[in-house]
Amino acid sequence: MFYNYCIYRLKAVNEHGVHSPFVFDLLMNVVYNRTEYYSYKSIEGIREELLNSKKLIKFQQGKSEAQKSVSKLTEQYERPAKYGQLLFRLVNHFQPQQIIELGSITGVSTSYMAAANSKIKILIIPNDPYTVEIAKENFRKLKLKNIEMISGDINSLLPEILSKPEPLDFVFINGNNKDYSILKCFNQCLEKANESSVFVLCDMYKTPEMKDAWDQIKNNNRVTVTLDLFFIGIVFFRKEQVKQHFVIKF
After folding, report:
1. β 147-149/64-69 pair status
2. Which of 83, 123, 127, 215 could join 79 via S-S bond, C-beta 3.0 to 4.6 A?
3. CA distances from residue 6 to 3, 9, 133 in whole angstroms, order as listed
4. How many CB atoms lie within 10 A of CB 45?
5. 88 alpha carbon, distance to own chain's centre
6. For residue 106, what are the contacts with CB-CB under 8 A and spacing of at least 6?
7. b or e along 159-180 (b: 16 or more beta carbons within 10 Å of the residue's beta carbon)?
8. Residue 16 burial (CB count, 10 A)
9. pLDDT (tens digit, 9 = 90+) per residue, 65-123?
């Protein structure tokens, strides 16, 4: 991670190093937008509660179970506020009809996406069955009613979800679970992707396997533009765009 982060910092540019009008506009109006939206404070209040919670719950790590505190889970698996707020701005900007999230933990990132537009439906396959109730309680506190959680194995549930006629215009693939392949999930979702679809990946440099998956995704023939923010990768399929990979300071 440290080596990859050093390479990222050496390569990363801001809006002044970008010559694509589409990406420049995205950086100025979304990625670098510093507006304090009304939802940020309440969601960060929930994060603070989670980080202070000493409650112990079961947590599935691979095929084994362990006990972890809610505070440790939140610290380990929920990315810092600026990444959740970026998800909020992406959803607010692109206004998808439906969001599919694969690998939710305590629901902080989900809450940011759901708060961006109450009319958007968010469908989640959570990472761990034992954290579902924690996420649901957080959604209740935030009065978020546009979220549906489907517990079970991603490998069996995702094909069923993708078989439905709803458009696939925003997908968030979390990198928390070793029981499913990020690349496999991406390729399954890719079959329903359209020119307006936005895919967001998390923790692409967490393991060598995930970095390799990220490299394969960037090289996919249907992918035209990617933004690498190190902890988050954003993927576009816009046919009018020249294929380019941008490493962006964030």
Report:
1. unpaired
2. 83
3. 5, 5, 38
4. 12
5. 10
6. 50, 70, 73, 74, 77, 78, 131, 134, 135, 138
7. eebeeeeeebbbbbbbbbbeeb
8. 8
9. 788 899 999 999 899 999 999 999 999 999 999 999 998 899 999 999 999 999 999 99
Q: Residue 61's pLDDT band (boundaries 50, 70, 90)?
A: low
181 pLDDT above the threshold of 70: yes
Helix (H, G, I), strand (E, B) or coil at 172: strand
The pLDDT, as a whole number, for residue 157 is 92
DSSP H stretches of helix in 1-107: 2-11, 21-26, 38-51, 70-77, 81-94
Residue whose token pair is 């069955």: 129
For residues 94 and 170, the answer to whether their CB atoms sit within 8 Å is yes
As a whole number of angstroms, the distance between CA 98 and CA 122 comes to 6
Q: Judge whether 69 and 54 are in contact, CB under 8 Å.
A: yes
Strands of 130-216 (E only): list them: 147-149, 168-173, 193-202
**Nearest CA among 32, 44, 162, 12 for reference residue 102:** 162
For residues 162 and 94, give the distance between their C-alpha atoms in angstroms, rounded to a whole number.
20
Write down the pLDDT at residue 247.
98
C-alpha–C-alpha distance, residues 121 and 145, integer Å: 9
What type of residue sits at position 197?
A: S
Q: Which residue has the tokens 């507006």?
A: 35
For the record, the structure tokens of 90 come out as 């992406």
Tokens 């109730």 belong to residue: 133
**CA–CA distance, 70 with 55 (Å, rounded to integer):** 6
